[in-house]
Amino acid sequence: ALKYKDVFTSITEEKPIYDDWGKLLGDGFTMIVAEDEKRKDNPFLEIPHQNKRISDECKALTLINRYPSMARIVDPDIEKSISDKLPSHLKLSKGINLVTISRKFYPSLCFNLIPEDILASIFLSMKAAILYCVEEAIEKDFYDIPISPFFNIGLKVGGSQPRIHSQVYIDLNMDGHGSRLEGHLEAFKEMGDNCHLCQTSHGDSDRIIIKTKFWTFYTTGSPVRNYHIRFHPNEHLRRFSQLKVNQINDLAKVLKVIFQGLDDISI
């Protein structure tokens, strides 16, 4: 018998999974965009399907989120019907929502139990899936594509799934990045080669939490929320997909330290 069972177990084990009371947890139907870094289903595939059991050699896989916040595929007649009923200042939100999971079960609330190579593999699978989705979206004439990768850690931020997982919002609305992110982008554009992050001392290093060969983690001088921690690669990169394997491995290592520290002070 499987020691841990969740909705994703039906995908990794290629069979419906029930809880101890006989309730169906998952039927195994999904769309796998990337198995580790290997491309699988097209991100615009219309019909989910059952897959073969995922090899134990696999460390992470990226799926189309079954409960998305954006519409990935919309029937033209239904889209028109919705659009006709919406106020003029609103429109149907379009995009691709991804979820990247560990192949084996690791608890989302216990970062200290997650091996660094598994966490790094989650980032690598996420990166491969993002590149695949963007390429396919461009083929469909989408452009200006904001991408938001994130983790939900803790029940207060909607982290209801017990297995460690990350998510990605790939925005296909083509209506900008939102005012706050647009402000960041404009600021960096105006800096040109004089990048603030490449030059700042972060308050004469008083705000630096951890600095490694590849990453700097620091408390921001303009927090948006409590305990707001920012981080950036020490190499000047334009996008997440440019990160190299050694940078991602180091990111996984440092994130474990950061989350353990937050746990230690009960955050």
Give the arrangement of secondary structure elements:
Elements: H1 9-12, E1 17-18, E2 24-26, E3 29-30, E4 32-35, E5 38-39, E6 49-50, E7 60-64, H2 76-85, E8 95-102, H3 116-139, E9 147-151, E10 165-171, H4 179-191, H5 196-199, E11 208-211, E12 215-219, E13 229-233, H6 245-264
Antiparallel strand pairs: 1-2, 3-6, 4-5, 4-7, 7-8, 8-10, 9-10, 11-12, 12-13
Helix pairs in contact: 3-6
- N-end to C-end Cα span: 35 Å
| CATH classification class of the largest domain | Alpha Beta
Name the helicity range. 25-40%
How many domains make up the 3D coordinates? 2
Could you spell the SSE succession in H and E letters?
A: HEEEEEEEHEHEEHHEEEH
Low-confidence stretches: none
- Range of strand content: 15-25%
According to CATH, the fold-level topology of the largest domain is HIT family, subunit A
CATH architecture of the largest domain: 2-Layer Sandwich
Q: What is the number of helical segments per DSSP (H or I, 4+ residues)? A: 6
The whole-number mean of residue pLDDT values reads 89
Short summary of the structure?
The protein has 267 residues and is α+β, with helices and mostly antiparallel strands. Helices cover 28% and strands 20% of the residues. The protein has two domains: 1-176, HIT-like (HIT family, subunit A, 2-Layer Sandwich); 178-267, 2-Layer Sandwich (HIT family, subunit A), CATH 3.30.428.
Can you describe what's shown?
- This protein has 267 residues and is an alpha+beta fold.
- It folds into two domains: 1-176, HIT family, subunit A (2-Layer Sandwich); 178-267, HIT-like (HIT family, subunit A), CATH 3.30.428.
- It is built from six helices and 13 strands.
- The strands form four sheets. Strands 5-4-7-8-10-9 form a six-stranded antiparallel sheet, covered by helices on one side. It has a three-stranded antiparallel sheet with strand order 11-12-13, with helices on one face. A two-stranded antiparallel ribbon has the order 1-2.
- A hairpin with a 3-residue loop joins strand 11 and strand 12.
- Helix 3 packs across helix 6.
